Amino acid sequence: MTGEAPRRLLLSAFSTFGVGGPQIRFATIANKLGRRFRHVIVAMDDTFDCRSRLSADLDVTFLPVHNRKGDTLGNRRRFRTILQQQRPDCLVTYNWGTVEWAMANWPRLVRQVHVEDGFGPEEAARQLPRRVLTRRLVLRGSTVVVPSRQLERIALNIWKLNRRTLQYIPNGIDCERFSNPNVEPLLQRNGLPVVGTVAALRPEKNLIRLLDAFRIVRAERPCRLVIAGDGQERARLEAHAAAVGLQASVTFTGHRPDTERVYAGLDVFALSSDTEQMPTTVLEAMAAGLPVAATNVGDVQGMLAAENVRFVVPPTAEDLAHAIAALLDDAHLRQAIGAANKARARSEFGADRMIAAYGELFAGAAAHRAERGGRPMRTTL
Question: How many CA atoms lie within 13 A of 319 on its CB side?
Fold first, then answer.
């Protein structure tokens, strides 16, 4: 009688397991891979709000770690003890906020995969030398995954990581969810064109820039702005909207699990960030058939259909306003760009390829090929 093969245990370390891009991507992948894996999830802030996105069928343990900020050596010791106790088949760390877990795994206890999605506001303009050196040292023996070509260049040229253990896996989404024509819009247009964004309300998203751009756009034409998401910046953003006379024209929806309903009510999607790599919200907007006005960050230009590229602009309120206004003023152009974006999202950024790539990576096959000197698995566009 043949029993079920043992399921691999993944210990996934996040700076937070609140709802955000990396956490939602993890939930999408874990749900699809199902019971192929067991999971232990740790969060440096002991926040696990994104657990609601995980299927009830998964074998998941949420483990508080009581991180002590600033106590690097103590955290390393405590985290290493957890690794020794849990004995995962693979440690998966996400972004700079979990670097102490990579330190805890040295000398190496378990195979490690590190996923780097991008940077906070402190690294928006330049790489910090201390962090560069730390990444270069502690990630040297790990498989490192990046979702953008820009990050790939940084990892190779600045962090000096080994190309054989560096993998480019672009983000993917459930295109059907966001392109469903029967989705009921969250907010009705009521005869006015609607600009909107979906974002965690954090400083690096620079939604003050979007509010200022919208104020310029609205001075010439009636329109509305929707900001979906929540976070530390919300009170500041609401105060700024009121201070510049926009409170009647701007809707803050707060966190929405049904973001497909937000996109269904928009005419133009806007991204105002100072730093991004491969923003999932842009992919979602593309799948929803929307044109995008965006600051020129990360891989955004390369993600969009060619017809949309000229609306990726320098990071100023004036340039963003010009891009938004040009799209609002031409319905036929919006429709054509939206259709091209939808086709590109379907052809290049479906979730299946991303899930397959991560499944192979977590199972160890891609890492073993790299360690043998072969070419690692690379998902290409």
Answer: 12
